[in-house]
Amino acid sequence: MDILSEILTGLRSEGIITGRFTLGAPWSFVKNPVNGAPFRIATENPFWVRVRDAAPVLVQPGDLIVLPHGDEHIMSSAPVDDAILFDKLLVDMGICPLPNRPLAFRAGGDGPVTDLYTGIILYREHRRNPLLNMLPPMIHIRAADITPWLMSTMKCFIEESMACQLGWNHAAACLADLLFVHVIRIYLQANTENICGWLRGLSDGQISRSLLLMHKEPQREWSVDALALAVGMSRSRFTARFQQLVGESPISYLTAHRMYIAAEHLAAGKCRISEVAAKVGYNSEKSFTRAFRRWSGVPPRTYLRSSPVAEMQL
């Protein structure tokens, strides 16, 4: 298995929130930051989206946008500098979203209507996710660049999320995983010159193999010497090349990867802390606790008690 497949295998959503908004111009609202990756698909008429301080982007019907970092953003029928908070819009309309149910409503004026299908793929520690944090604030895939397979997945997702038949939430989450994998593939193929971090490391056969080794065997007692030997490089050449391409030292990358895996085990709640420590290469629970606290800001026991997915709305 290649390193990208290895990481994508671990990129499984913890849930999904979906909705359909029928919006007549003029309309606009601000979405607060979320712990997940929102995506939007529109039909009928275009809309505008502005992420943080970037310039507004026109999204045509059939286009797909994904916000890998879950940043605050404004969506509107025309470019605006400010808008009503989405939560306040719902309150003003007397709408109370129900858990595990798609949110559907009609709002705005009497102008051209935009049908907006929307969702949030929920990921724990999404800002530390090794793939998500390498991506830009927004990925915009135009309708002309969407493959037939991706279009089919998008249609299936919309149908599943809105039909609410038995098992719809699980089916929609699985489709969202597939949707996200195809978005990543299209983005990487179109942006080979702009990628950075470990994604850039994939361009070098030996560095890519070292990344795969760390991902496949995080519990192994890796050292720089052992990694260099495993990929057929001298210690100094391997260290310099890894730093140049990935942007950090091999051990720094390995530690961050181990902590991300540990966070997943802790969130699952099926292992004792000492067992989690062993799974990521630590013989001492004390040493693991120090490393985890530096990475997450809280000790493992506190993290273990935290809610697996924060409450959020579309």
UniProtKB/TrEMBL annotation:
Alphabetized UniProt keyword annotations: DNA-binding, Transcription, Transcription regulation
Presence of keyword rRNA-binding: no
GO molecular function terms noted in the UniProt entry: DNA-binding transcription factor activity; sequence-specific DNA binding
SMART domains: HTH_ARAC
Higher taxonomy: Bacteria, Pseudomonadati, Pseudomonadota, Betaproteobacteria, Burkholderiales
Organism name: Noviherbaspirillum cavernae
Name used for this protein in its record: AraC family transcriptional regulator
Signal sequence, start to end: none
Pfam family, one: Cupin_6
HTH araC/xylS-type domain residues: 208-306
